[in-house]
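Field: COMPLEX_INPUT
Field: COMPONENT_COUNT = two
Field: RESIDUE_TOTAL = 712
Field: MODE = joint
Values follow.
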Amino acid sequence: MWPDRRILDLVGLDHPIVQAPMVGPRAGLAAAVSDAGALGSLACAALNAEQVRSEVAAIRRSTDRPFNLNFFCHRPASPDPAREAAWLERLAPYYRELGLDPAAPVAMANRAPFDEAMCAVVEDLRPAVVSFHFGLPDDLLLRSVREAGCLVVSSATTVREARWLDACGVDAIIAQGADAGGHRGMFLTDALASQVGTFSLVPQVVDAVRVPVIAAGGIADARGVAAALTLGASAVQVGTAYLLCPEAGISPVHLAALRAARDEDTALTNVFTGRPARGLVNRAMAELGPVNAEAPAFPSAAVALQPLRQRAEAAGSGDFSPLWSGQAASLARETGAADLTLRLAEEARGMLRIRR
Amino acid sequence: MWPDRRILDLVGLDHPIVQAPMVGPRAGLAAAVSDAGALGSLACAALNAEQVRSEVAAIRRSTDRPFNLNFFCHRPASPDPAREAAWLERLAPYYRELGLDPAAPVAMANRAPFDEAMCAVVEDLRPAVVSFHFGLPDDLLLRSVREAGCLVVSSATTVREARWLDACGVDAIIAQGADAGGHRGMFLTDALASQVGTFSLVPQVVDAVRVPVIAAGGIADARGVAAALTLGASAVQVGTAYLLCPEAGISPVHLAALRAARDEDTALTNVFTGRPARGLVNRAMAELGPVNAEAPAFPSAAVALQPLRQRAEAAGSGDFSPLWSGQAASLARETGAADLTLRLAEEARGMLRIRR
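Field: COMPLEX_OUTPUT
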C-alpha cells in the first residue's frame, strides 16, 4: 500500500505517478503511461480542437485507463505591435545570419487559452482528469468541466497559489517547485526571484491545503518519487525523464541536449514565449536573456523566434529552440515509457518498504 | 540504524544532523546541538582569533561531544575605492533619511578568509570538524588542518563543485541546494540563475562523489530530514530552523521576520555583502536589488550598509538588515536546540521506519 492513496483512489491509478503534460509529445506517450497504470497527459495548449479529438481517439485505441488533458488558461495580453516589432528588430541580426527575411509571415501553432469551444470538446470527450496551467479558467467553464465528470487539477508555485486553488475547489494541486522544467505555472505572482524549490515547496503546500498534492520539479528517478512522498505528496509528476522516452518523439536537438545535460545547465527564461520557463541554456537564452524585459507578452515572444528555430533545427542546431528541462535530467534513465513508469513505482516501493 | 552511517561513524554522532554555521549565534547554540548528539557548528568568519578561542572554550565547558568550526575561504578582491564610493553614494538617500553622516568611519567585524593565523588557532584547538565555505583554502593550510586531526568538509552548489571537492580529498560534501538560506557556497560558477534546487542537487551529487553527502537547503522538519536521506544524503544540515531556537540569540527584527516568513518571501541577493545569499526580502533588497551589479565585491558591500542597519535596528526595523532565511522557515517549530535536534531525529526515524 502506498502511504497516501488519495490520488490513486480518486483517479483510479496503480502508481502515484503523473506524466507531465508537455508540448511536443502526443498520444503515444500518454497512452503508454496510462496503460502502465500511471496517469498519462496530453498537452493541448498547442493543439486545435480537431487535433485534440484525434489524439484522444488514438489514446483510447491503446488503453481504457484514465488520462489527463492539459490546457493553458492565461489571460491573453492585448496585442502590442510596437513591442513585437521591437522584439523582431532585436532578433534581426540572427535573421541576417541565418539568411531569413524578417518580413516573411510566420505560421504559429495555437496557444489560445482554454475557451468555450475547447470546453465543448472536453465535455464531449470526458477525460478522467483535466489539468490547467496558469491558474484556472473562469467559473462557467470550470463548472462545465466538473459537470462533465472530469477531475480538475492545477499547478501552484507558492503556498498562496495553492490556497487559492484549494478555495476554488480543485480536486488536487500540483506543487510545481522551481526545479521543474517548462513553463512556471505562476499566476498570482510574477516574482521570479522568489520562486520556491521543490524540496521547500511540497511540504508547505501539503500543510496549507485540504486536497491531495502532486509534487513536481526535479523528480526523475525512484529516489525522487520516494522523497516526494516522504515530504507529504500524494503523487508525483515527472516531466523531463519522460521526454527521454522514445514515445515522446522530441526533436533530435532537444534529445541531444537532454542527454548531455548537467545539473547546472538550466535557467528560467522568458525569451522563448514571454512567460518564464526552465530550459537548458542555449545561444538564445545566453545572448537574449535568460530573462529579457523586452520580450513580448506570452505567447507572442515565440512568433519572431519561430523562423530562427526552424532554420537552425534544420541545420542540426538547437541555438534558438526552447530546450525545456528540469534540473535533474541527468538522473533520467533512457527507456520506454511503460518501463520507466513501472521501474519508478517498483523501486520507490522498495525504498519506502511498501509491500505490493 | 540509520540507512547510511558514514557521517555518523566518521564524526561520532548519534543523529545525522548538522547545525548550519551561521554568523550571529555563538557557543550556546553549537554546544546545545552537539550535546544532543548532532553536530553543532560555530561560524568563525566574523570572529577574530581570540573570539574563536573563547567560544570554543565555552562549547567545551558545556559538552565533550564533537563540534564544527566553519571558515570562509574566498579569495579577497582587490580594494576598489571608486566602486565603494559609488555604492556609498547610491545609499546616500538612506543616510539622509535616517540622519546619518556618510563620511563617518564604520567599524566592521572581521570577514577575512581563513589564513595562517587562524590555521594556527585551529591546530591548537583541534575541533573534530572544520568546514569551509566558498571552496577550500590553499593546499598548505588544508594540509595543516588535516594533520591536526580535523575532518574537512566544504559546500558544493553544483555537481562540478562537488567533484572538485572530492578530488581535493575532503571527508564529506555539503550539497547546498538553492533553497538554502545565507551565502551560496558557489566557487566555480557565478551563474546565479543556474543554481540548483535541493531536491535536484542532492541525488546528482550523491551519484558523482565517493564521500558522504550532507544535504542542505529547505530542511526544517522531520519530513525534510527523511526525504533528504531518501535522496541519498548521509546526513542533513539545518540552518533556519535553528535560528528560531532561543540559543541562537538572533536580533528581534530577524526573529520577527522569520516568524512571519512565507515560502515566497525570500530571494537571492548580493546587496548586503557583495556575494549572493538568500534572505527574506526587505526594503534594502527590494529597492537596491535583489541583485545589484554595482555592489562592491565581498565583503565590502556590507561596510556602507552597516550604519543604516544599526540605526534601523535600534528603531525596531529590519529594513537594512540581512534577514537570512531558507525557503522553508514556515516549517520550523520554535523550541530549544536540543529538543529540536531530538525531535527531528526521532520523527525522521519514525518516517523511515528505523528501529532505535
